[in-house]
Design goal:
single chain, alpha+beta, seven-stranded antiparallel beta sheet, six-stranded antiparallel beta sheet, 14 helices, 22% strand
């Protein structure tokens, strides 16, 4: 990420500091955040340092940017939903989020860090190209996580971590819904969480087919479980549409339906900038769990699959290339047909990787998945460039 996105980081941080006005005031205001990173995730500082070095800025400035950037740009349109394995085509959990926020270049990636003396789980996630926080993701234990903007916060708090950082801590450290809940309770109890003027609506799902919706205010937590294996983030018109659609397709729900809902108003908003459908198998999530990422408005771009088992992420997903191409081109009716073809290619890739796992072992399987995801991402790039359509 540092290697390819240094220019994005430099531009975004410079613009942010210019908007804030006083560097000293911002550094003072984010001192609490930086101390929390040092305590809860000191390995992030090395990553921040690499990004800052490439961008030509001080690591303290980048950390201040990371800690403060979301306090003024949260939007209420984000939306998340879930379907348990018993309702789906295949033995997997489905989990989707549409992200709505300020329009910035978007990235999707697989991240796996080795930290001495600490277990840090690998995950796939998406966010701004200038960001080390996560907007939605799936980890190698099968835990899927999303955080949406909630209601107005009656007791605002501005010193602490906002949900992109808390989400990354959860993806790196929790194996299932119950552990995610306990981490939220810890953040709540120790006043780590500071969401500013709005609450946070969390949703978690895991490989066991469990899901939980948790509304977090600074002084209270409100929990709601799934409804017979289905769950939506809110009981508004979007929630009604999603629940009615999922209930009407029990036993036949697949990633394509989740993606189609993401492109249907009012779930799809004009402010949408990315989306994710996580596909969580019951076994070997660390290899064959994957997410389909839209790194631009879900109604105007292609969903790209990325497996947890890869050794590297295709550059075009990380550096904003697919975001840029999607923004430059209007895609017509051929988009879903192309995605269906891409899905068939993905199935062939996974089938080949499963065979390699048996015959040659895990390292060879990971190489096969890595090469397969690179081919798929390249196909998407060519499609968005108009160089290749349906075969």
């Amino acid at each position: 990420c540092a290697r390819v996105n240094g220019e994005h980081v430099s531009e975004e941080v410079a613009a942010f500091f210019a908007e804030m006005g006083s560097r000293d005031a911002l550094m003072e205001a984010t001192a609490c955040y930086r101390s929390l990173v040092e305590r809860l995730a000191p390995h992030w500082l090395e990553e921040m340092g690499e990004l800052a070095a490439v961008a030509g800025i001080a690591v303290e400035e980048y950390a201040a940017y990371q800690g403060a950037k979301y306090r003024g740009i949260n939007r209420p349109e984000c939306f998340t939903y879930f379907s348990a394995p018993k309702h789906n085509v295949g033995d997997f959990t489905l989990f989707h989020k549409n992200r709505d926020n300020r329009d910035r270049p978007q990235a999707a990636y697989c991240k796996g860090l080795e930290v001495e003396g600490r277990m840090v789980y690998r995950y796939v996630a998406t966010g701004d190209t200038s960001d080390v926080g996560t907007m939605m993701g799936l980890n190698e234990k099968g835990l899927a996580v999303a955080a949406d903007t909630g209601a107005e916060e009656p007791d605002p708090r501005f010193r602490g971590m906002m949900n992109p950082d808390l989400m990354r801590l959860i993806l790196e450290g929790a194996v299932d819904v119950e552990e995610a809940r306990e981490m939220i309770k810890m953040f709540h109890r120790e006043k780590v969480y500071a969401g500013g003027k709005v609450a946070t609506n969390w949703m978690f799902a895991d490989a066991g087919g469990r899901a939980l919706r948790l509304y977090q205010f600074h002084e209270s937590l409100e929990e709601i479980g799934d409804r017979d294996g289905l769950l939506a983030m809110r009981e508004d018109e979007r929630g009604k549409l999603v629940m009615e659609t999922l209930e009407g397709n029990r036993g036949e729900i697949g990633p394509a339906l989740m993606n189609r809902l993401s492109r249907t108003e009012p779930v799809l908003q004009k402010s949408n900038i990315s989306a994710m459908t996580a596909i969580v198998p019951a076994k070997r999530v660390d290899l064959f769990g994957y997410a389909e990422f839209a790194v631009f408005n879900a109604g105007r771009t292609v969903y790209v699959p990325l497996y947890l088992g890869v050794n590297a992420t295709p550059t075009v997903l990380v550096d904003g290339t697919l975001y840029r191409l999607s923004k430059e081109r209007e895609i017509g009716e051929e988009m879903e047909a192309f995605e269906a073809e891409l899905g068939r290619e993905r199935e062939i890739c996974e089938g080949r990787a499963r065979g390699v796992l048996v015959e040659e072992g895990e390292d060879a399987c990971r190489r096969e998945l890595t090469n397969g995801c690179l081919r798929l991402a390249t196909r998407v790039k060519e499609f968005l460039e108009g160089e290749r359509g349906l075969s």
